[in-house]
Structure formats: C-alpha cells, structure tokens
Amino acid sequence: MALAHLKRPTEAARALAESGPLPANRQAEADLLAGLILGPNTSAGRERLKDAAKNQSNPSVRITALHALVFAAEDELAKNNPTEAKAISNEVYDFLMRHNDGQLAFLCPRDPKILDAIHLARAQLMLVAGNREKARQAAEDLLHDVPASPLAREATRTLALAAWGDGSFRLAANHITTLSEGTIETRRDKLRTVAADCLFLAKDYVLAEKAYATIQAETTLPDLAFTAFHQRVHCLLLQGDEPALWNRTAEVIEDASRKNRLIPRERLWMAVWNLIDDARKANQPTEAERLLIRLAPIINDTKIDFTLRFDWLKALIALSNHHPDQAAKIADSIATRLEKLPAEATDELRNAVPELKGHVALLKARSALDTGSIKGMEELVSLRKKYGKVAASAASYLVEGRHLAAAGRNAEAQARFEALAKEFQGDSALSEFAQLGLYEAAEQAALQAPTEGEAKLKDAVELLERFTDNYPLSPLMFRVAMRRAEILRSLGDFDKALLVLEGLIRSKPSDPSRPQAEMARADSLFGLAELRRDRNGLIDRQRIARAAAAYERIAEAWSKDSDEIRLEAWYKWSLALIERAKTETNSEATVTRREARTTLVRPLNLLRTPMAGSGSLNPTQRFNSASRLWLARSILLLGEISEQDNDRDEALAAYRIIPELNRNLAPGEARLPGQATAESKLATLRTSASNNLSNKPQ
Fold first, then answer.
1. pLDDT band at 613; cut points 50, 70, 90
2. φ, ψ dihedrals at 264, nearest 5°
3. How far apart are alpha carbons 258 and 244 in whole angstroms?
4. In this structure, which of 42, 388, 520, 573 has its CB flanked by the most CB atoms within 10 Å?
C-alpha cells in the first residue's frame, strides 16, 4: 500500500505477487488489490482483476472485481475513447463467456451467489460495445435465472437503454414504466415522463397524451407539470385536424387554467397559440376564430410580446376568412403598439422592432392584395426597397409569387420565385427563403406543362437539380428528391428516377418518410418494366419480379405504422403479381394469381380489427381518405381477378363488400369510393347468371 501511495504501482503489484503462497481467500483479495493498484484501464490490471473474478473463495471480492472490469470500459467511453472502450468491453465479455478447455464449465465460474452480477456485467459491457442484442440477451438471462435479484432493476434499465438505442420506443416505454413502479414519488414522476416521451417518439400520440395527463394531474414538481401539459397539448394536435380534437385541446387548456396552479400563465398562452395556429394552418380559419373567441378569457391580460403574437394571429385568421380590411386594421394596431412599447417590454422585443415593422408592412401589403387592388403589388416592391435584405423582404417574394399562382399566372409566379432564389442565394441567414424560391419555381414550371409541353417539366427537373447542388443539407432535401423523381417518372425517365430515389434512400436511411421513398422506388421499377415491353407487348419477367419484390418488402417491412402505406403496397404488389403471371407457364401463373388474390384479401383483415378506443361501428372509420381509396381498389381488383379465374361466387362476394360497408352511412362518413362500379359489376354478373339459366335446355 505504501508503494501504491508513492505512485509506484508496478512495484506494489510485484510486492503482492512475491508475498508468498496465500490461502485462496487472501489470494483473491491480493489479486483484487493488485488489479486496482495497476488500474483497470491497463492490461496488467485487468488480468489481475480477472484472476480475482474467477476465484470462487470470496463472492464479495468477485463482485468488486466485476464492477472494476465494467468500470474500465465505461471510463474509456466517458473519456471519449470509444475504440478502446469497445476493445475492453469485448475482451472482458469474452472472458466471462469463455469455457474451460474441453469442459462445459465457464472459466469465470457461474456461482449462483454472483450469477446475477455476471449477467449484469455482460449486459453493461455489451451496451458500451454497442452490441445491443447481446446486452438485451444478458439482461434477459438475469431476469430469467435470478428473478428476485436486487439487480433486476438494473437489468430492466439495460433493456430500456437497448430498446431506446434500437429505436423501439414503445418497448422502451414498457421497461421504463416497470422501473417507475415502486419508486419514490419524485423519481417515479421523472421515469413516467421518460416513458411518455418514448410513446411520443413511437408516434402513439393517444397513449402518450394519457400518460402526460396522469403526470400533470399527480406530480408535485412544477417543471414536470408544465412540461407534461405542453406535451399533452402537442399530442392532441398531432392526432389530426378535426374540430373534436381541437375542442378536446381547448378543454385541457381551460381545465389547466382553472385547477393546476403549477403551470405558469406563459405556458397557457403558448398552448392557446399552438392550438389556434394549428387550426389556421389546417385551412380551418372559421374554427380558429371560434377557438380564439372561446379562449379569450385566458389571453385577455397577456404580456406585450404575447399580445403582439395574438394580434398577429388574429390578422392572419382575418386574411384567411377573406376579411382584408379587418386584417389591415389589426396591422395598424400592431404598428402603433410597436411605436409605444410599455416599460416592461424586454430588450429582445425592443431590438426586434425594426424587423417586426417590416413584417407589419408585409401584412398590410397582403391585406391590400386580397382586396384585388394593384396597391398591394406596389407595397411589396416598396417594402423590398425600404427594408433591403431582411426576412420580410424575402417573404414578400413568396407572397407575390403565390398571389400570381392563385390567379393562374404561373409563368409570372415562376419568375418571381426564381428572382427570390437568385436574390438571396448565398445569404446564410435567409437561405431558407432562397430554397423555397427554387422549390416553388419548380412547382410552377410543372404546372405549366399541360399547356406548354414537356419542356416545362424538364425546366422543373433542372430547377430541382440546382436545389440539390446548392443546398445538399437542406431540410427540404427529401421532399425535393421525391418530387424530382416523380417528375422524371412522368417524363418516362424511370432509370434516372431510380438513381435519384436509391441515392436518397442511401443518404437518408432513417428519414421518417423513407416508406414513401421505397414506394416511389417500387413504382419506378414497375414503370420501367412497363416501358421495356417486347415487340409482342409482353412485360419483362425479371423486371416485373423486381417490382413485385419491392412492393412485398414495403408491405412487410415499411408499413407497420401506416395503414395507407400497407394498403397501397398490397394493391400494387397484387398488380405486379398479375403482370408477372402473364409471363409464366400455366401452372406457374395459376400459383402466382392465387398469391395475388391472397394478397388482396389481406386488406379485408384490417376491417375486422377496428381502431382501439373508437366507439364507431363503422369499420372504415379508422382509415383516412387515401387509405379508403386503396382499400376500395383492392376489393374491386379482387372481384375482377375472381371473374377472370371463373370464380363467380368469389367475385360476387368481393363486389358486395363496398355496398355493404357503405350502407346507412352519410355521404361524408368514411364511405368507400367505387360503389357505383361495384353495383354495376354485381348487376352484370347477376344478368349473365340469369341468361345462363334461361339458356339451359328444359
């Protein structure tokens, strides 16, 4: 110990080694001490710690040695040395998993007294190494082999971390909820909040909202209370753009303002703003105005910065409701407030006044535009001259371009958007406006194609390619690539569309919109197969098989969280199979067509599993309009194939589905499209059946 104190670890370890033969118990202590003196981060230190860990005479020494070995890996990770941390983790893990030569027994004996410590060490080491599958297996071994272990909570924590790392947020929420049980109130509330956050990340906004509601109601911590309230409102808004959800959100805000004193007024004002702005952005200005009136008591006495925000929101709602004169009056009111800020106004607000005045001028110009007056255009030009390169000036190009586009003057709109892109190119502070300019210019070019020809589509592709070259890190990049590929497909350039989409998928494999990119890629493969038919009009078997495989992969791997993607993939997969069957021998084609029919039946299974928590008896209530379209197409295609295969009973059963589901439903109540087609098919089949019966000899 004296040598260790003098920072001479090698000599201290040698002294321990030369202390003579020791009883097993004392030898374990000596090995542990030597390992700690040499340091767990050194190879020699770890070897001595391993000797202590496999010495069965002293369980407490073994546990301490295991802790030190795990610490060595975690310490390297903390020092931002991941390569060394991974190497140490794998080294120690191999030691724990190694068997004695020619035996089933482990080199580090699995004594029941420390079995849980060994499993936990394995799990922690593999977490450091980044091998979450092995970490999960080790933690599950602990819970299975020693269910009553005091280390069970640490094992559950490891499972939660592994699930989080894999992106399995729902599973992580389950493990964290287990951890929260039986803990003290403060820690319990924090763990519950993390579990709710996991549900939010899993996009299960219904369950997440309920979890946040529980936290908001039960916690005594102000930070958690208003965070839970904020997230709860966010969850409700993300569930859809429906008046019922907006009313529910308003109730939550009103209830919080009356009962929960832990939530600051500013948080309530922010929630009101988010709710009303959500309704406005959903193109429901009437609903936004109604909510504004309903929640007026909560926002009557706000600070000046929030007063300005709500006045601004009122002006935007007035514009959306086609009340430009009212919007102009509100803009004048905002301008007056900016000139006479109260003493309590923050420095941040005072410094922003020049920029805000530019936005007020833009608001006035928009109001004038909506009256149909030429004055609006003149005010936009005047704004750009007066304020120079500021956000309001950049936005004025967007306002002007969109106004021209709404009037059907697409060529002029394209020119304004291109002017915006050119004017603000290279301006890092306002580059988002330049990006929008290029993107919207491309859209306007594409809109001119029906009258101006394919040249305009090529212009659109060129503009989107410029966007890709100039702004490779833009948040719009995914949308731009998708649109570029779509236009290329409409031009028949499926090869180039495939290159764009495959490059996009490689560069952004974790993007939330990847399923849509995979679908577009499969569509390009299908289009390429259709384009490359032979002289007899037959489709290439290999190409159509690739398309079918792509749709199958989407249905199985990329549509778990989206009914719309799943239904679209099943329908297109079936179409591809039907086309593939045309290239096959009779026996092969029969099997392939049967597979297509089986695939088309799968959407019907979704009708038997109504959405959880829905009180509606309408099984199509869970689907959005696009999903109902793909479902109807699948049903009609199933009937058509059954007809072609001379399976009249199956065809009749398929065509009856749409009228049966739509029976007694109002026109706007989640009806399936295609009812007229289905009824026409039913009538034709029944007529042909009657003719066949009447033609039979008596």
1. very low
2. -65, 155
3. 21
4. 573
**64 — phi, psi (to 5°)?**
-65, -40
| DSSP β-bridge partners for residue 99 | 106
Confidence (pLDDT) at 436: 96
DSSP annotation of 137 reads H
| CATH class of the 2-166 domain in this structure | mainly alpha
pLDDT of residue 612: 43
Whether 197 and 207 have beta carbons less than 8 Å apart is answered as no
CA angle at 413 for the pair 412 and 419, rounded to the nearest 5°: 90
Tokens in use for 104? 């089933």
Where do the domains of the chain lie? 2-166
Phi first, then psi, for residue 611 (nearest 5°) are: -60, 135
pLDDT in tens, 527-548: 999 888 877 778 888 999 999 9
Q: Could you give the C-alpha distances from 461 to 62, 288, 420, 439, in angstroms and in order?
A: 67, 37, 18, 10
Q: What is the pLDDT of residues 134-149, one digit of tens each?
A: 999 999 999 999 999 9
- Decide: helix, strand or coil at residue 647: coil
Question: Do residues 460 and 487 lie in contact, with contact meaning Cβ atoms separated by under 8 Å?
Answer: yes
Burial of 356 (0-12, 13-18, 19+ CB in 10 A): middle
Give dist(CA 600, CA 577) in Å, integer: 11
**Is pTM, for the whole model, over 0.85?**
no
3-class secondary-structure state, position 356: helix
- 106: three-class secondary structure by DSSP: strand
Which residue from 608, 606, 686 is spatially nearest to 652, judged by alpha carbons? 686
| Contact (Cβ atoms closer than 8 angstroms) between residue 260 and residue 216 | yes
How far is it, in rounded angstroms, from Cα 111 to Cα 553?
A: 46
> 287-310 burial, b if ≥16 CB within 10 A, otherwise e?
bbbbbbebbeebbeebbbbbbbbb
CA–CA dist 466, 63 (Å, integer):
62
Residues 78, 85: Cα–Cα separation, whole Å = 9
In our burial notation (b when 16+ CB lie closer than 10 A, e otherwise), range 621-655 reads ebbeeebbbbbbbbbbbbbbbbbeeeeeebbbebb
Q: Report the C-alpha gap between 627 and 562 in whole angstroms.
A: 9
Mean pLDDT of the chain: 89
Q: Let me know the angle formed at the C-alpha of 205 by 204 and 208, rounded to the nearest 5 degrees.
A: 90
Q: How buried is residue 104: exposed, middle or buried, by Cβ count under 10 Å (0-12/13-18/19+)?
A: exposed
Cα–Cα separations (whole angstroms), residue 281 to 49, 232, 243, 284: 63, 19, 13, 7
Backbone angles phi, psi at 49, to 5 degrees: -65, -35
Position 1 pLDDT exceeds 80? no
Q: Stretch 363-368: mean pLDDT, rounded?
A: 92
